[in-house]
Amino acid sequence: MTIFNDLRDASVLITGGGTGIGAALTEGFVAQGAKVAFVDILEDDSTALVERLAPSAVHRPLFLKTDLRDIAALKEAASKAARAHGPVTVLVNNAAWDDRHEIGAVDEAYWENNLAINLRPQFFMAQAVAPGMKAAGGGTIVNFTSTSYMLNIGDMPAYTAAKAGIVGLTKALAGKLGTDNIRVNAIAPGWVMTGRQKELWVTEEGLNAMLARQCIKAPIQPEHMVGPCLFLASGASAMITAQTLIADGGML
């Protein structure tokens, strides 16, 4: 793994950091020697991750059990991370819920709940950490979107609407916060083989169809998202902001 020296001892906050892509990101930043706090709603998986990473960590990762739909709880988690590790200078908005849903089955409550997980927290977490980043002289925000909204996929319209919204939010935040030396970028993964995906939706036929469209003929794994995220979080990408990095094996 490439070592980004400016990430050592950095105060990093990751949403959805206990499982899937988020767990890989937590592990990746811990391996850089960063002070990592992560929020997740899944207590058992998150606690197990902390205990697995702690023995070799420069700084023991901090798990903050949080329901991101609760904005007050989200802001308190950001405050706890800052109290434990200093002002957050790297925020990774990773948490998402890619539930499939038919158009006719979506009611107002479902729609609001979906966006309360997939879009609203990204803004309010950025709002919560931005003052500390400004006081620290700058920071980086990495928002996870998805290639799904670019592919005309019809079985998760609320999710793909949120993921498209993240790109707009990324550009708006970058435009507003750039004068405070805060960079904001997004990563759009392809179909990543997380445990949830493999349990619920991956079939041999579906995976082969996706691999046929990728330039790189290998399944995308959670750890493949770590390098792009570390790069965008670090000073190696110092003049990159308001951008979306597509990490899909060349499928698009």
Automatic annotation (TrEMBL):
Organism: Oricola cellulosilytica
GO MF entries: oxidoreductase activity
One Pfam family in the UniProt entry: adh_short_C2
Domain of life: Bacteria
Protein name: SDR family oxidoreductase
InterPro entries on file: NAD(P)-bd_dom_sf (IPR036291), Sc_DH/Rdtase_CS (IPR020904), SDR_fam (IPR002347)
Coiled-coil portions: none
Family: Belongs to the short-chain dehydrogenases/reductases (SDR) family.
Keyword line: Oxidoreductase
